[in-house]
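Thread: Newbie trying to understand structure tokens

Hi all, I'm a second-year student working on a class project, and my supervisor (Dr. K.) asked me to get a predicted structure for one chain before our next meeting. I've only ever worked with sequences, so writing a 3D structure as a token string is new to me. If someone could post the tokens and maybe explain what I'm looking at, I'd be very grateful. Here's the chain:
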Amino acid sequence: MRKMHTPAKFATLLGALLFLVASIGLAEVKMYTGVGTCVLGDLGTPEQAKNLAKEKAMQNAKEQAGVFLASYSRATNTHLSDNEISAITTNIISLVGEVKYEQTSGELNGQPAIVYTATLQAKVDTDGIKEWLMYDEKEKAAIVRQNEEIQNDLRNSINELEQLTQQYDKAESRQEKEEIRREFNDVGKKLLASQKIDEGNVLYYKGDYNRAIQLWNEALAINPKLVEAYNNRGNAYSNKGEYDRAIADYSQALAINPNLVEVYNNRGNAYEEKGDYDRAITDYNQALAIQPEYANAYNNRGNAYQYKGDYDRAIADYNQALAIHPEYADAYYNRGRAYAEKGDYDRAIADFTQALAIHPKYAHAYYYRGYFYYRKGEYDRAIADWRKYLEFHPDDEDIKNNIQILERKKHEKRMC
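---
Reply by user tm_fold:
Sure, no problem. This is what the structure looks like when written as tokens:
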């Protein structure tokens, strides 16, 4: 028999292999008009006023789009939380055309002022919900968490700028006005940096890593201590295979804040991709020292031990991850691989089966379960699993050839 083909290295985050739920039908595209205003008195510049009005217009469009997506989610029984709806809305809403600005006369605290009004057109596509469902739970949680943080930063900056505008107009002394002006400029920079992080996150979500990196570069030029920008840029570099750059960014984030559990985990992943398993383990250890119930770090440390050939330690870590998170399909899948390396095919198959019970569209679990059914001589089961795998990867010629080999093997056995 010809050699059976298996991947050289298995992935640990396979949520993107999940296919879409059948309840969601054809995509709907909705257009929204966002409107935002900023009253400019003696504080601030026209550019700052226009940027504030633009951000308020975008927030207005997001609110409208979020209501629609929440309704669509209920109608299709997708059951998304409010935080998920917010994250999806932020990441799929896109501007159509240019922002239009209008200047009109108004007043602030009874004094003449200029009112800047920003009007924009934005669209959302319900395919964004389908894309969201393709992420695994860890990725979703990270996106939701960061979206909450950045949206809070944006809203807080808007509120602070409006409050400072009111305070400036009422201030009596020149010194007080100058202090408010300095604070206003600082908050304006904070808003601009947050906007660039937000826009970079949207591009990252779409897989446009280069443009996302450029926006995070611009955010860091405004504020060199933005750990979110370093971490996110590190993730983008890691996805591009530029692991040294990723590690440098993660290290910079940790130099600013040494208690960032997620960043230790991310840097550990980058070291692992470079084959530096000992450094990866050190980072996973640090993440677990800060947050002992971090299932993802146990799973990832288990992978590093497995790559080092220490299968018993790997299995112990997967067990710990599953004790914390019993529905952790990746941990079952990875533990199955470790059992297989030890020659315990029955336990491996049981773990792949458990991973598939949690995620029935987990393509690589079908691949490996089929392979180890083959190793056990259970050709019918191997063929069934590989055919299931081909539903997700129809162009895998090696698997097609393997199935043909097993079909011939079965035929030859019947002829004997």
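A couple of things are worth pointing out once you decode it. The mean pLDDT is 89. The longest strand covers residues 94-108. Feel free to ask follow-ups in this thread.
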